[in-house]
Design a protein that fits this description.
The chain is mainly β. Helix content is about 0%, strand content about 65%. It has no helices and nine strands. A hairpin with a 2-residue loop joins strand 5 (about 45-60) and strand 6 (about 65-75). The mean pLDDT is about 85.
């Protein structure tokens, strides 16, 4: 899936771990497997908490890669929770969605295109 937001949601320039902030934005989600496009927004997950910075290891284009100092955020809505990691210059590189403590889905960067 590919999410495109116009304009892209903005995050605060400065935040300390544990601080809350809101993210708003609208865009389109393309499901490449089903060849569909649907409108999306941050309707439920808008109240975020900044978790902190961490290095994230991923396999990109079949090669191991470390994204230094990614920004991790979390958000909850009813009994769901998301965790997301953003890397400078790349955007969201990892996303996890939970229902209670059960992992429902995980999405991670697989390739980089210029």
């Amino acid at each position: 899936m590919t999410d495109v937001f116009k304009p892209a949601p903005t995050f605060p320039a400065n935040a300390k771990p544990g601080e809350r902030f809101e993210v708003n934005g609208k865009g389109e989600r393309t499901n490449h497997a089903e060849d569909t496009v649907e409108a999306i927004d941050y309707d439920g997950f808008s109240d975020y908490i900044f978790v902190g910075f961490e290095d994230v290891d991923a396999e990109v284009g079949g090669q191991p890669r470390t994204f230094k100092d990614t920004c991790q955020v979390t958000a909850t809505f009813e009994d769901s929770r998301i965790e997301a990691w953003y890397a400078a210059g790349f955007g969201r590189i990892r996303f996890e969605r939970y229902m209670g403590s059960d992992l429902l889905m995980r999405d991670e960067i697989k390739s980089i295109e210029e």
